[in-house]
Design a protein that fits this description.
The complex is a heterodimer of chains A (422) and B (220). Chain A is α/β, with parallel strands linked by helices. In chain A, 41% of the residues lie in helices and 16% in strands. Chain A starts with 7 loop residues before the first strand and ends with a strand. In chain B, the strands form 3 sheets. Chain B has a 5-stranded antiparallel beta sheet, with no helix packed on it. Chain B has a 3-stranded antiparallel beta sheet with strand order 4-3-5. Chain B has 2 domains: 60-110, no CATH class; 111-220. Classes of the chains: A alpha/beta (422), B alpha+beta (220). At the A-B interface, helix 6, helix 7, strand 5 and strand 6 of A face strand 6, strand 7, strand 8 and helix 3 of B.
């Protein structure tokens, strides 16, 4: 019988995120694996053939103009006989694929699991792309309204704003932080590639209205790209990256309603957290999955922002990053308003968040996104930022504990992981 | 015997009529369209090929059909659990309360009034809705429903939208109704009047100006 084992991340790499990238999925993914061969001389796909499985992380068959597009990839990588499957869980596809790999290694069913994420969103027009994403809402009720996800998120943000007395400028601070962090991340980050300069709060405030309170620069953009992360047991972690590996000490995955309006008074939440939570302004699935991950990793809810040194979270919108701070318990000993005004998530704050740029700065090719977040966190914890970013501007020095967050729907599926430097 | 949602006998289903209806919108399938090719600055070749693909979906509403028929009759049909009494709109044809073990819910007619819980003023939206910009997307608690429903709030000056404002349900003319959520929308309760302009409302009004201008150009 397989035995339970500890789970580690031994390496990871992303392609540049851009729109479009003018490559096919197999070339993108081959690039990530060849880069891993370069970074980790002891790594070999034959190990995966003997002791592993591959988890593919891919959101939309519509974007791929192909069902089971990972069959093309697996074949292209020279893998036959190796078990493979694909995870789709909306925006939390990457986090969920990482969770699946974690579960496989934890259970002892596999010892080395590359998680391969990709999305080519430029195969259709931008408006068609938004429509594809919008059909992850309940098409019988929501898609026909002519709204898309940005509009739904804006609605959730507006009540959050009112509940906590926040302003558009508070959100703009987050957008600016992530865009500017991406400048230090360099040529792989979409904001660096497309815009290439730092932005100000005034830039955000003066940008075009998308859906109040969101303006253009509060939002992530359509992206293309791929990412591969190596999830292994302890033996392979030491063999591959003796000086650069982290342990996944906590993993939580939770769910919420597909239609945001249905979580207003859902029995499953009121029984757990009492009446009035989450309403429409809070991400209960984020809170719940964080509670699970924190408990596994020995992190106290109230002190979580002190016990975590660096975080990469799912900032599809500046507003949702703010709602995530609250759902992760970071505002427990203060208020959301004070949390941002004390600059806690900034590079020199208590808990630097999205130093890699996040979705707003780095990009959001859905299937690759959560893996990018995990890889950026892994770089921070293993001292690889100078090598990977060719800059130390967004390095969190001596970080030991990191959080990775991946987020789907209107908060419909959310995962949180705690990574610890070994 | 456990009550289940009935599976209608397929003999009742008129395939010939369905085929006729489906043929009104012919599908083309995978069809070659265009290509373009060139070389990038680094000398590498690139080729793009465009292929058109379409599909006509049939949504079969099954147990949810009374909701759609209600819309055609100008009524909002919600559901109520006979065990726990929870009312929801949009309807849930099995109860959401785990203790009710997926009890099949009863249909109840909802009142035509609600309270706006939260909203956004859309300055950009899906392609089909661009010419309606800027419009308000609102989450509204209709009657005693324990869930909020998203729909459009029609209001002259979008920046006057306020949380907790009372709203009323308005239906399209009978001949225009199709049994879908687009059959109805919300409007401010005629008794309600907005609070005076404030900093947020002025800001939203300003953000909307270029959107009106953009839509004017779009409509030309």
């Amino acid at each position: 019988m397989p035995e339970q084992q500890q789970v580690f991340i031994a390496g990871g790499t992303t392609t540049p995120f851009d729109y479009p990238v003018n490559l096919q999925i197999e070339e993108l993914v081959a690039n990530t694996i060849r880069q891993l061969y370069d970074d980790i001389p002891n790594f070999h796909l034959k190990d995966v053939r003997e002791d592993g499985m591959v988890v593919y992380s891919h959101f939309s068959v519509h974007f791929a103009h192909q069902l089971t597009s990972y069959w093309i990839l697996h074949d292209h990588l020279g893998l036959v006989g190796v078990p493979h499957f694909r995870i789709d869980n909306g925006g939390n596809t990457g986090g969920s694929a990482l969770y699946a790999a974690y579960a496989l290694v934890r259970a002892g069913l596999a010892d080395v699991v590359p998680v391969i994420g990709y999305e080519l969103m430029g195969s259709v027009s931008q408006s068609k792309g938004s429509e594809f994403i919008a059909i992850a809402s309940d098409t019988r009720y929501e898609a026909m309204l002519g709204a898309n996800y940005t509009n739904y998120y804006a609605g959730l943000a507006r009540i959050f704003m009112e509940e906590y007395g926040l302003t558009e400028e508070d959100f703009a601070e987050i957008a600016v932080k992530n865009k500017n962090n991406a400048i230090a991340t360099g040529e792989k980050a979409q904001h660096y590639r497309k815009v290439g300069k730092k932005l100000t709060v005034d830039d955000v405030m003066g940008s075009r209205l998308i859906s109040y309170p969101l303006k253009k620069w509060d939002c992530c953009f359509m992206s293309e790209g791929a990412a591969t992360i190596l999830v292994t047991n302890e033996k392979y972690a030491k063999q591959y990256s003796p000086d650069h590996y982290v342990e996944i000490t906590g993993a939580g995955l939770s769910s919420c309603t597909i239609r945001a309006g249905d979580r207003y008074a859902f029995p499953g939440w009121t029984e757990r957290y009492g009446e009035g939570y989450p309403g429409l302004g809070e991400f209960a699935a984020c809170r719940h999955s964080a509670e699970v991950a924190y408990k596994m990793a020995g992190i106290n809810w109230k002190d979580s922002h002190k016990q975590i040194d660096v975080a990469e979270v799912h900032d599809a919108f500046s507003t949702s990053e703010f709602q995530i701070y609250n759902a992760l318990g970071w505002c427990e000993s203060t208020t959301p308003k004070q949390f941002i005004r004390d600059k806690m998530p900034m590079m020199d704050g208590e808990i630097p968040t999205n130093p890699g740029g996040g979705l707003i700065g780095y990009g959001h090719p859905v299937g690759a996104t959560g893996l990018m977040s995990a890889i950026e966190c892994y770089y921070q914890l293993t001292g690889l930022v100078p090598r990977e970013h060719k800059s130390t501007d967004n390095e969190v020095k001596d970080a030991e504990v990191g959080l990775v967050n991946s987020h789907a729907g209107t908060g419909t599926s959310i995962s949180n992981f705690i990574l610890k430097r070994v | 015997m456990t009550k289940l949602h009935p599976t209608p006998n397929n003999n009742d289903f008129d395939w010939e009529d369905w085929k006729k209806l489906s043929k009104l919108i012919p599908e083309k399938g995978w069809v070659w369209q265009n290509f373009r090719a060139g070389s990038a600055a680094d000398g590498s070749d690139w080729v793009e090929q465009q292929i058109y693909y379409d599909m006509l979906y049939t949504f079969r509403l099954g147990a949810l059909s009374p909701y759609a028929k209600g819309l055609m009759n100008g009524k909002l049909m919600g559901t109520k659990c006979p065990k726990c009494g929870d009312v929801t709109f949009p309807p849930r044809v099995n109860c959401w309360n785990l203790d009710c073990k997926l009890e099949i819910t009863d249909w109840v007619e909802m009142p035509m009034t609600g309270i706006l819980h939260t909203f956004t003023i859309c300055g950009f939206a899906a392609k089909s809705a661009l010419k309606k910009l800027p419009f308000v997307l609102a989450y509204v608690l209709v009657g005693e429903s324990k869930t909020a429903i998203a729909n459009i709030l029609k209001i002259d000056k979008p920046w006057h939208t306020e949380t907790n404002m009372p709203v009323v349900v308005k239906f399209a003319n009978e001949e225009d109704r199709v049994g879908n959520i687009i059959d109805f929308w919300f409007e401010p309760d005629p008794e309600w009047s907005p609070s005076p302009m404030n900093a947020e409302k002025e800001r939203i009004e300003k953000l909307c100006e270029p959107v009106y201008e953009w839509v004017r150009i779009l409509n030309r």
